[in-house]
From TrEMBL:
This is Ubiquitin-like domain-containing CTD phosphatase 1. SUPFAM superfamilies: HAD-like, Ubiquitin-like. GO terms for biological process: regulation of proteasome assembly. Residues 136-296 form the FCP1 homology domain. It comes from Lottia gigantea. Pfam families: NIF (PF03031), ubiquitin (PF00240). The keyword Ribonucleoprotein does not apply.
Length: 312
């Protein structure tokens, strides 16, 4: 008699779905059918990250007992419903120069100096533990990068994460590594950061190294009069822990400007990378940013630069 696998948790599109009732003799195909009933993502559209045998994704005939999945295991899924995929097949509009995001006014930027928010940063400096992957190098500037829509289209469907990778990603990181230590900061959990970086081949690349990852726990909440409570990425958390970096030698790339509202002079908002299958041959954002990073290395103080005009 087959034992039950126990509840599994599928994390997809910002939500978690509990899959119950599976037994050890059920197959990967049975699991995908159960996921389909919960999410309406067809089995053939599902990419279940973390299910591997000897480094490879299991065939659909493989029994769940072979995978040795523990109850309450969280499995990240990539995939798109058919109705959403139909929208993607429409001819893409030209990406506008102005991205749909909070229009942060100049008088709101003063929140970077508010004592209550600076106190939150001090608490993160004290309590947040950074796991160093590769030691910082003496004399290197700091480049902080977002993941979703910056390096990776996390909404489109694909067989492998590499298919959703932004063009020139590895060339960009290899070139940046010559002058900058690189930190990845995503508004997600550490598990998902590691999964995405492994899937994109970033964590194991031989030509560059990532210094460390920061997740949502390193962010703080701030209140703005116009938009209410928002979560942001204060670079002061890094600067408080590593004195060799500051506003003078740090730059952050993100597709959402509000993420660096506490460091407005240090952030550079880039165009989001969406609809990877249709924009893969058109998107050259990282290639141009690679040249920009090299150009500004001669500057002694990044804080005097206006990154809004980076393309000029």
């Amino acid at each position: 008699m087959s034992g039950e696998v126990g509840d599994l948790i599928i994390k997809w599109s910002g939500q978690e779905y509990v899959i119950s009732g599976l037994v050890e003799t059920d197959t990967v195909a049975d699991l995908k059918d159960a996921v389909f009933k919960k999410t309406n993502v067809l089995p053939e559209r599902q990419k279940l990250l973390g299910l591997k045998i000897k480094g490879k994704l299991p065939d659909k005939e493989i029994q769940l007992s072979t995978l040795q999945i523990k109850p309450k295991t969280k499995i990240m899924m990539m995939g798109t419903r058919e109705e959403e995929l139909a929208k993607v097949t429409e001819p893409p509009a030209v990406m506008p120069d102005v991205i749909n995001d909070f229009d942060i006014e100049e008088d709101e930027i003063a929140i970077e100096n508010r004592e209550e928010f600076l106190a939150k940063i001090e608490k993160r400096i004290k309590d947040y533990e950074i796991k160093i992957l590769n030691e910082p190098r003496e004399g290197k500037r700091l480049l902080v990068l977002d993941i979703d829509y910056t390096l990776f289209d996390h909404r489109s469907v694909a067989e492998t994460p590499a298919e959703l990778m932004r063009p020139y990603l590895h060339d960009f990181l290899k070139a940046a590594y010559l002058y900058y230590d690189i930190v990845i900061w995503s508004a997600t959990g550490m598990k998902w950061i590691e999964t995405k970086m492994n899937g994109l081949g970033v964590s194991s690349h031989k030509d560059y190294k990532i210094c460390f990852y920061l997740d949502s726990d390193a962010m703080i909440s701030v209140h703005t009069p116009k938009y209410g409570l928002i979560d942001v990425k204060p670079l002061g958390v890094i600067w408080g822990k590593y004195k060799q970096w500051s506003a003078a030698n740090t730059i952050m790339f993100d597709d959402i400007r509000r993420n660096f509202i506490m460091n407005p002079q240090t952030g550079l908002r880039i165009r989001p990378f969406r609809k990877a299958h249709f924009n893969r041959d058109k998107d050259s954002e990282l290639l141009k940013l690679m040249w920009y990073l090299e150009d500004i290395t001669c500057e002694k103080d990044f804080s005097v630069l206006n990154h809004k005009d980076w393309e000029k």
